Amino acid sequence: MNNIKDITNNYALIPKRYTYKKNAIIIDADDGHFVFKKRANNNNNNQLFKYLKSRNFIYLPNLIKTDDKYDIYQYIEDIDTPREQRALDLMYIIAMLHNKTTFYKDIDDDEYKAIYEETIKKIDYMYNYYNDIIINIEKSIYMSPSDYLIARNISTIFNSIMFSRREIEQWYELVKDTNKKRVVTLHNNLDLDHLLRNEEMYLLSWDKSTQGMPFLDLLEFYNRYALEFDFEELFKFYESKYPLLKEEKLLLFIMMSIPRKLEYKESEIERCGEARKVLDYIFKTEILITPYYTVENKKES
Fold first, then answer.
1. Domain extent for 52
2. Do 47 and 122 lie in a common domain?
3. Residue 277 · residue 260 · CB < 8 Å
């Protein structure tokens, strides 16, 4: 099925209207309202949905049929919901997904070591990246506004990098002798547009779903929306339904604390905006994680 005519003929649909949305086609036909979504690679949402339903996870769209190219879903009419409420709903659904699909997996010594080494590599890369930036800035006779913004706050950037570097050592000491890890089904593509709500809630776009440690869904959501939402409240809400283990939370905070790469734009106004985003991300992360470390210090003393 390479075009809309093939689709309607193959499924004996009499279409009244088509709507194209990214990699999906919404067809309003005499027999109902359907969404035809192209299948990604070799993913099998049919098998995934069967598994999730067997675990009593209910927040799934109705998958009517699947073939070699398309998954066909019943169309869901979405109601207008404030984005803050939608973010909270998404945290609830992800907490339920993780809760329903948790199991413990035996691992060998190399698995945590690989995470440790890969994180060290990422931290060192960001240190060298920002070190090169500040060296070049300091060579300038006159700093641009974006360069001045970075230069003025470079200690904040390096402090965040050094924090990550120190904490990954603590994390590895905590887990290096562990032979199990907690694994869940990860949605792995969290976006507010993937949550639909009317009488019930539905989570869409499962093409990237995989298995892994639960904090990875939270990290993806944070990286995407850290500058828009109060993640402190969202994180507390998630943990009220599905508390992270100490090593999971520590690794989440480490990954959050690694600064974003500064992307240089053509105009100076855009470059200032990008620099501001890098710094705001660091400041928001500090505000989020500092209370947890304060509590830990109080407990230890």
1. 4-75
2. no
3. yes
